[in-house]
């Protein structure tokens, strides 16, 4: 018995050494193509490095991060009527007039620019940032990511359930739903940009005008209130098939006899979906959410092609800082912020959806 245990232990050690030998090239490649560039970007983020320049690079510590992330909240005072000494009332709206948010924000030692205004407990406040464009880019990317992933999950689940059913022409339907995902983003983005044209040459303005729901000149891509919903619509149209494909793969792994047993027990389609399908798809949904969320939060091409500099995502903001402003250190700091945001979402998904390591 002792010899058998010793032989088993030696065999396990040999298998472990063999595994390390086989994994060594993988770790070397990972170090070369992932870890080294990440450490390089991390190092540059603490410098004032200029892209494609012979200027000397200096260490500036956390200055780039401070410029990107510094924010403040300041109360905006009302305009005082000199005649009455009371807050001035706008005669058209009947509301109190307030000072300009630009004037109340600090300008020294650094200048803060307004990001947004809000009211709390009857007082008006302004949120200011040293780089308002970056804060807007972070917020827009988070809203874009959450909205698109939620809609794609819901619509992808519906599509996956439909094409998973047994009906005539199912194979053709499965191929058809993949068309939007197969079209390159550069092509589909341009198509949608033409469809969102701010006159009746655009598809949506033409349709809404014929239905009597607009003047035919709705500025979908220039109105700040409509830009982000337009981006979300484009991405949902293109990427829902990918989500449906992932969920369909999970549905195909569920044994049919489980549903037959549920049907015998009198469980209807809705009950079977929530008590059988969703729990059994938990792992597939986790993988789909991680893939799509990380992809959505690093969106670049869609914003770059459709909106350009009119509105940034985190990735397009970083691109413009590097290419247009040649601020290599500043764009590196922005890249590290993106990396942290993506890491937080990935870890949160794995913890909340119960993804565990083999050791537990």
Please describe the biggest sheet, giving its number of strands, its sense, and whether it closes into a barrel: 3 strands, antiparallel
What's the total helix number?
15
Radius of gyration over C-alpha positions, nearest whole angstrom: 27 Å
- What separation lies between the terminal Cα atoms? 29 Å
- The average pLDDT score comes to 85
Helix/strand structural class: mainly alpha
Major beta sheet, strand line-up: 1-3-2
Any idea what the CATH superfamily of the largest domain is called? Answer: MetI-like
Number of domain units: 2
Residues in β-strands, percent: 5-15%
Supply the CATH architecture of the largest domain.
Orthogonal Bundle
- Strand segment tally: 3
SSE order in H/E notation? HHEHEEHHHHHHHHHHHH
Residue share in helices? 55-70%
Provide a concise account of the structure shown.
By secondary structure, this protein is mainly alpha-helical. 62% of the residues lie in helices and 6% in strands. It folds into 2 domains: 71-130, no CATH class; 133-352, MetI-like fold (Orthogonal Bundle).
């Amino acid at each position: 018995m002792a010899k058998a245990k010793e032989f088993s232990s030696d065999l396990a050690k040999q298998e472990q050494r063999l595994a390390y030998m086989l994994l060594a090239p993988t770790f070397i490649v990972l170090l070369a193509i992932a870890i080294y560039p990440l450490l390089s970007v991390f190092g540059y983020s603490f410098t004032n490095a200029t892209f494609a320049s012979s200027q000397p690079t200096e260490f500036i510590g956390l200055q780039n991060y401070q410029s990107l992330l510094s924010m403040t909240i300041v109360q905006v005072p009302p305009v005082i009527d000199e005649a009455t000494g009371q807050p001035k009332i706008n005669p058209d709206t009947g509301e109190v007039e307030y000072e300009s948010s630009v004037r109340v924000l600090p300008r020294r030692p650094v200048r803060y620019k307004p990001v947004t205004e809000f009211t709390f407990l009857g007082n008006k406040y302004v949120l200011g940032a040293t780089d308002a464009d970056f804060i807007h880019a972070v917020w827009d990317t988070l809203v874009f990511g959450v909205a698109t992933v939620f809609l794609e999950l819901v619509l992808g689940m519906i599509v996956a359930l439909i094409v998973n059913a047994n009906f005539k022409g199912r194979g053709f339907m499965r191929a058809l739903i993949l068309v939007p995902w197969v079209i390159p983003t550069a092509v589909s983005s341009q198509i949608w940009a033409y469809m969102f044209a701010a006159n009746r040459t655009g598809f949506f303005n033409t349709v809404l005008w014929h239905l009597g729901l607009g003047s035919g000149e709705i500025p979908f891509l220039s109105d700040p209130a409509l830009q982000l919903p337009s981006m979300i619509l484009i991405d949902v149209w293109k990427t829902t098939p990918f989500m449906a494909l992932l969920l369909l793969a999970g549905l195909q792994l569920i044994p049919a006899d489980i549903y037959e047993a549920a049907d015998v027990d009198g469980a209807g389609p809705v009950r079977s979906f929530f008590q059988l399908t969703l729990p059994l798809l938990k792992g597939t949904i986790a993988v789909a959410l991680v893939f799509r969320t990380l992809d959505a939060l690093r969106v670049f091409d869609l914003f770059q092609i459709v909106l350009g500099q009119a509105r940034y995502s985190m990735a397009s903001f970083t691109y413009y800082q590097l290419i247009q402003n040649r601020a290599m250190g500043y764009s590196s700091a922005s890249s590290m912020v993106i990396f942290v945001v993506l890491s937080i979402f990935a870890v949160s998904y794995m913890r909340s959806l119960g993804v565990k390591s083999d050791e537990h």
